[in-house]
Design goal:
Two copies of one chain form a homodimer. Chain A is α/β, with parallel strands linked by helices. The first copy, chain A, has twelve helices and 21 strands. Chain A has helices at 15-32, 46-54, 65-73, 90-99, 109-118, 143-154, 177-200, 213-218, 238-243, 275-278, 326-331, 345-351; strands spanning 10-13, 35-36, 59-62, 78-84, 101-106, 123-130, 138-139, 159-165, 207-210, 227-228, 253-263, 268-272, 283-284, 290-291, 293-296, 298-299, 302-303, 311-315, 319-323, 337-342, 356-358. Chain A starts with 9 loop residues before the first strand and ends with a strand.
């Protein structure tokens, strides 16, 4: 690690683990016969994008128009924006639709009408459906509302209705792996019911797209589904480990943080690594403590095993307070590097976009 | 506001309020005869820096070496880095010390020795003291340890011992305005005790520098203090309003967020405005609800009054879920803008550095 020369908070990405994570989900998707359209919001990084390309991926998801532009500029030609259409950025949407095969998310007749009337090239339309997460989308029980939106879509030659899309984000609140599988089954069942209803109403070829990393990691085979869009799996993180979606050795990024003070009498060190690097996302770890990140030491392949009795237990803007076990405390000093496995890698990677190193 | 053309999450800064906030603290500092060295970590913005310059401010605080470099490049010549020295960035510290009057924060003999031996130009040294916040610094009761660090400093001709510096961040946990004043008094008293002890040991001209916005906002006169370094006061935010450090009309920034979905049956709207714009900082509002931001409507001078029964009650990476009162719900649609007063403006301004507009 010393040759990495970490001098300030830096996101270290282990390429071998990224490749393995991509391969695992790719193969599972291939085996199930579903399209794999990974969400790039987690890494937002052109070089990590290249690792997906190496694995044969051509279709991606972005979470904002600006992010879609970024990846279009990096040569991606098939992009779904997995976020309800922001009609205020219509000019950007128009130029994107000219440049790539663009998928857009709608949940109202008004937005469909607006797109139909304003887009001057073709776009794919996905209807956002809420299967229980409760964030956004049309309640899966409201089939007739979904039908009305599809009917509206069909009025416009430039819009192609692709299908139903959901993000079962409630898997993040799951209490067990079985719970996650249960949410997946429930989500798939609800979407298939909507599809059946639409078929009886004469609408054919409706695809189903699902998204969350916990489901995509734990479910062995995707039945009755056409597309998966997980994002976080590329790095995973401490939260996913605690959820049971990944193993420790699947976590593919960590933040190298310089130690700036050691308080031996309190078993604590202060690191340069705070809310502007890690984000304020927190989780309760297996010891029951609030955690802003798990702690490891630098090692040959980036970082070693998580230190069981160490924890980033408090953060402010730039500071992280780390509780350390005695052995680690004795081994570090001001100027040492501690590796922090982030609670939520999407937010951490976003904050450290300009300070990311692939190893 | 329509001429502002907000099309994506954008930090709107009200210059008139910024100027007034600067003036209030400047005048108080002048009246008390203390140096005002505002912390620029909140805004991190060259144009907001210019508003301080207009007000006659010449000395500033930064929270990292990179931030100090940014403001040095913007013409600031007297910068204290209010964060323990990160010895790994010694090359950057050396070039900064050549360029500006640099103040550095230490809390160990080892760091002083390292600086003394490695700096090739002069720097000011502040000793970080912990008066009860418990984050970092030397416990104010450990006078002899502080004395030892000062003695070490005096061995090096390039180091000038300036004094004792603290951040009484525990004012953020205060339960009342009186509580904040009490913490300030306690902090000042503890630092003055250390200074008295050092004087009896023969060390003269030890300055005292304090920092937090709640204290600097509520205390009328700074006695026995030489320097104040608040930062957040430039914008304030929803947290400071709830703490009682500011009035609603002092809050000088808000995030313009496009509405991307309206769920009338749930009294909710979905905005483009999530953890990558607002941060995940949360607070409990006066209704007892978890809040990721207060909500207002766009208005002539940026935004109107906080809507009492509206609230950003949940956020994910890009989405914000907003509970809206009936009147507001009826007045908005997809494509409307909601203004979100951030919980913690420092983190929000950091996230929206590239999307900030001064009005």
């Amino acid at each position: 690690m010393s040759d990495l020369d970490i001098v300030k908070p830096t996101l270290i990405v282990n390429k071998e683990r990224v490749r393995r994570n991509i391969k695992t989900i790719s193969e599972k998707a291939w085996y199930s016969g579903v399209r794999f359209r990974p969400h790039f919001k987690t890494h937002q990084n052109a070089m990590v994008g290249d690792l997906f390309r190496e694995a044969g991926i051509e279709s991606i998801t972005a979470s904002s128009i600006d992010m879609a532009k970024f990846f279009a500029d990096n040569g991606w030609k098939d992009i779904t924006i997995g976020f309800p259409v922001n009609v205020l950025q219509m000019n950007d949407i128009k130029s994107l639709a000219r440049e790539v095969n663009l998928g857009l998310l709608v949940e109202s007749i008004e937005t469909v009408k607006f797109l139909g009337e304003n887009l001057d090239t073709a776009a794919d339309i996905w209807i956002k459906v809420d299967t229980g997460y409760g964030r956004t989308g049309i309640d899966s029980k409201k089939g007739s509302r979904i039908k009305d939106i599809i009917s509206e879509t069909r009025k416009f030659n430039n819009l192609t209705l692709k299908g139903l899309l959901t993000h079962a984000g409630h898997t993040y609140n799951a209490v067990s792996e079985d719970d996650i599988r249960q949410i997946y089954d429930d989500t798939a069942e609800k979407l298939q019911k909507v599809r059946s209803y639409l078929e009886t109403e004469g609408f054919e070829n409706i695809e189903i797209s699902i998204g969350d990393t916990p489901s995509c990691s734990l479910v062995e085979e995707f039945n009755g589904i056409d597309e998966i869009r997980p994002g976080n799996f590329v790095y995973y993180d401490y939260m996913q480990l605690l959820l049971g979606s990944c193993r420790e050795e699947d976590i593919a990024c960590a933040v190298g943080c310089p130690v700036v003070a050691v308080h031996e009498e309190k078993d604590e060190a202060i690191i340069h690594g705070g809310a502007v690097h890690l984000s304020k996302e927190q989780v309760r770890n297996s010891n029951g403590d609030i955690s802003f990140g798990a702690v490891a030491l630098p090692a040959e392949n980036g970082w070693g095993k998580i230190l069981k009795n160490s924890n980033v237990f408090s953060i402010s803007q730039e500071h992280g307070k780390v509780r350390l076990d005695n052995e680690t405390l004795e081994s570090i000093k001001v100027g040492s590097i501690l590796m922090v496995l982030p609670v939520h890698s999407c937010l951490t990677a976003n904050l450290l976009k300009e300070n990311t190193v692939l190893i």
